[in-house]
Amino acid sequence: MSLVEYSSSEDEPSEIHSDAKLELPAFLTTLSGDSLRFDAREDDPEYHQHRQRSFPHEIGNWSTSVFIPCPGLSEQLDELFTNLCPNATVSLGRSLYVMDNPHLSLSKTWVVRHHWIEGLVASLSDALENVRRFDKLDVLVNEEGTR
């Protein structure tokens, strides 16, 4: 077995005096133009059915909630909402919109990292597998009053 001999720190200068600035590596100069990862867009509710975000969007985070789709309800509610929304808008002093995909929310919205999604879906599927059907409809508003 052989030993490796290293020079002692005494062989090196004790202080390096340099006022010269190091150059920024070329790959870093292009990061500000990388709109996929670093572009902070203004939130436009038009992109997500006029919903207001509860928290700002961050790359890699997925806005998540647990809900049960109600596909048969869509046709039944379309006419009602189309007639109701203009009158309710005047009464409430705020705009109401018809939902594209009616659903029953089972949770609040929260942030999930992308790599957690598959495990979360599997766990929820197992936990909710034997939930019984509901027998009536009730319309509720979230805590923020935005949905």
Structural overview:
The chain has a domain at 61-128. Helix content is 29%, strand content 10%. The protein has helices at 26-29, 35-38, 71-92, 117-128, and strands at residues 61-64, 67-69, 103-105, 110-113. A two-stranded antiparallel sheet has the order 1-4. Strands 2-3 form a two-stranded antiparallel ribbon. The longest helix is centred in the middle third of the chain and has 22 residues, at 71-92. The mean pLDDT is 73.
Secondary-structure blueprint of this entry?
Blueprint: H1 26-29, H2 35-38, E1 61-64, E2 67-69, H3 71-92, E3 103-105, E4 110-113, H4 117-128
Antiparallel strand pairs: 1-4, 2-3
Number of strands: 4
Shape: elongated
Strand-residue proportion: 5-15%
What summary fits the major beta sheet?
Answer: 2 strands, antiparallel
Strand order of the largest sheet: 1-4
Helix content: 25-40%
- List low-confidence stretches: none
Euclidean distance between termini CA atoms: 73 Å
